[in-house]
Design goal:
alpha+beta, BirA Bifunctional Protein, domain 2, Rossmann fold, 2 domains, 8-stranded mixed beta sheet, 5-stranded mixed beta sheet, about 40% helix, about 20% strand, elongated, binds histidyl-adenosine monophosphate
Length: about 425
C-alpha cells in the first residue's frame, strides 16, 4: 500500500469547519485597518537571506536556528522563506521609494515560517497580520498602535488580553546597558544555564527573557534598562504613557521586556493572555528607527507590530462567539428528463439574486439527494422534477424548521429563500 502523505510537522490545514472563524477574523481586521487609514501592501514570501540576517540580527534565535533557507538552483543565491514581515515591508518601501512623499501607514497579512519546536500555539508555518507606520517619529504613533489594537480586541469580542510595555532607549543607551548587564551576569555565571551562558556572549539582553525558574532570582536582581535611558527616549516613553492614559488603555511597564529581534529601539510592547498556556503573546511590536537606513534607505523612523493569527483564532474558538455557517443557503436537487435544464437555469437565477446554491452532483433518486441536502447544512432544499420544470416553478423545503414544503414560481423563488435569512 502506498504510504499516506501528511502535512509537514508544524504546518496546519485550516479545514472548512474552521474557515468561518478565519473569515470573521479577517473581515473584522480589514474593517478595523480601514478605519485607521492603513493601506495594504502584498509582499513576496521568499527574500534574500541577507535581508533577514541584516534586520533581525545575526545572533537571534530566528536567524541562528529557525530560518527555512535554501540555495537557488540556478545562481546559488541564498534565499529564505520569510520568518516575519517587517524586513520585507521595509525592503519594499526602500526599493520603491515610498517615503518620497511623506509617511506610509501599511499593513500586510500572510504566512511566516520559523523552524521552531511545534507545540500548542507555536507552528512552523503561522500567519501574521502586520501593521507598520514608516516615516513617523513621534510617540503619538506608538500610542495609537496600542490604542488601535485595544479596539480590535473589542471588535473581535475578546477580553483579558493585557498590554505590557517597555523602552529600550537609544542604540547608545542600549550599548551602555548591555555592558552593565554583562558585568552583572558574569558575576552570577555559576547559576546560568547553558543557553544563558551562550547568550551572555552573543545577545545578553535575551537572558532576561529566560523562562528557567532557576534563573528568576538572578534576573530579578539584574540592573534595569530604564536606569540607562537617554533623556529623549525617557521623554518619548513618558509621552506614550500619557497618551495611553488619555485614551483609557491600561498597561503595565515590564522592565524585562526586550523582544527577540534586534531592530527595536525605544518603545516595545506585547499583548499577552493567560488563556493559551505558554504561547500567550498574541501581538507584539515596537519602534525600529534605525532599520530603514540599515536596509539602505534614507534614515527614517518607524514603528509597527504583528499579531499571531492562529493564537487569536484559538481565543475566538475558545470563546465560542463565532458560529457563522459556511454552507450554501440552498441545496438544489433534481430528477427527470426535463428537470436538468430547468435546475441549471434555476441555480443560476438564484445566484443572480445573490443566493448561494449548491447544485447536487452525480444524479441519483430524490431520496438519496435529499439526504445529501440535509447533510450539507443548507437551510433549504430546492426540488425540481419534471412537473416543476413544465410549470416554470420550483418546490422549496425548509430543512432546519418544521415548516411545510411550498411550490412557487421561479420568479418568486429568490424572495422566498431570502425571506428566511436570519
Ligand atoms: P514577533 O514577536 O516575532 O514579532 O511575532 C509577532 C507575533 O507572531 C507573536 O506575538 C506571535 O503571536 C506570533 N508568532 C510568532 N512566532 C509564532 C509561531 N511560531 N507560531 C505561531 N505564532 C507565532 C515580529 O514578527 C515583528 N515583525 C513584529 C513587528 C512588526 N515589529 C514591528 N513591526
Amino acid at each position: 500500500m502506498t504510504e499516506t502523505l501528511q502535512a509537514i510537522r508544524g504546518m496546519k490545514d485550516v479545514l472548512p469547519d474552521e474557515a468561518p472563524v478565519w473569515d470573521f477574523f479577517e473581515d473584522t481586521v480589514r474593517a478595523w485597518l480601514r478605519r485607521y487609514g492603513y493601506r495594504q501592501i502584498r509582499l513576496p514570501v521568499v527574500e534574500n537571506t541577507d535581508l533577514f540576517v541584516r534586520s533581525i540580527g545575526e545572533v537571534t534565535d530566528i536567524v541562528e536556528k529557525e530560518m527555512y533557507s535554501f540555495t537557488d538552483r540556478l545562481n546559488g543565491d541564498s534565499l529564505t522563506l520569510r520568518p516575519e514581515g517587517t524586513a520585507s515591508c521595509v525592503r519594499a518601501v526602500v526599493q520603491h521609494n515610498l517615503l518620497y512623499g511623506g509617511g506610509q501607514r501599511l499593513w500586510y497579512a500572510g504566512p511566516m515560517f520559523r523552524h521552531e519546536k511545534p507545540q500548542k500555539g507555536r507552528y512552523r508555518q503561522f500567519h501574521q497580520i502586520g501593521v507598520e507606520a514608516l516615516g513617523y517619529a513621534g510617540p503619538d504613533v506608538d500610542a495609537e498602535h496600542m490604542v488601535m489594537v485595544d479596539r480590535l480586541w473589542r471588535d473581535l469580542g475578546l477580553s483579558g488580553i493585557a498590554l505590557e510595555i517597555n523602552s529600550l532607549g537609544s542604540t547608545e543607551a542600549r550599548a551602555r546597558y548591555r555592558s552593565r548587564l554583562v558585568d552583572y551576569l558574569s558575576q552570577h555565571e555559576a547559576v546560568l544555564d547553558a543557553d544563558s551562558k551562550r547568550r551572555l556572549l552573543t545577545n545578553p539582553l535575551r537572558v532576561l527573557d529566560s523562562k528557567n525558574p532557576a534563573l528568576q532570582a538572578v534576573i530579578e536582581g539584574a540592573p534595569r534598562l530604564d536606569d540607562d535611558l537617554d533623556d529623549d527616549s525617557r521623554r518619548h516613553f513618558d509621552d506614550v504613557q500619557r497618551l495611553l492614559r488619555i485614551a483609557g488603555v491600561s498597561f503595565r511597564i515590564n522592565p524585562r521586556l526586550v523582544r527577540g529581534l534586534d531592530y527595536y529601539n525605544r518603545t516595545v510592547f506585547e499583548w499577552v493572555t493567560t488563556e493559551l498556556g505558554a504561547q500567550g503573546t498574541v501581538c507584539a511590536g515596537g519602534r525600529y528607527d534605525g532599520l530603514i537606513e540599515q536596509i539602505g534607505g534614507k534614515p527614517a523612523p518607524a514603528c509597527g507590530f504583528a499579531m499571531g493569527v492562529e493564537r487569536l483564532i484559538a481565543l475566538l474558538e475558545a470563546g465560542g462567539a463565532v458560529t457563522a455557517n459556511a454552507a450554501a443557503e440552498a441545496y438544489l436537487v433534481w430528477s427527470g428528463e426535463q428537470a436538468e435544464a430547468h435546475a441549471w437555469h434555476v441555480a443560476e437565477h438564484l445566484r443572480d439574486a445573490g443566493i448561494s446554491v449548491a447544485l447536487h452532483y452525480g444524479g441519483g433518486g430524490f431520496k438519496s439527494q435529499m439526504k445529501r441536502a440535509d447533510a450539507s447544512g443548507a437551510r433549504y432544499a430546492v426540488i425540481i422534477g419534471d412537473d416543476e420544470a413544465q410549470a416554470g416553478e420550483a418546490s422549496v423545503k425548509p430543512l432546519r424548521e418544521a415548516t411545510q414544503q411550498t411550490r412557487v414560481k421561479v420568479a418568486d423563488l429568490a424572495a422566498c429563500i431570502g425571506h428566511g435569512r436570519g
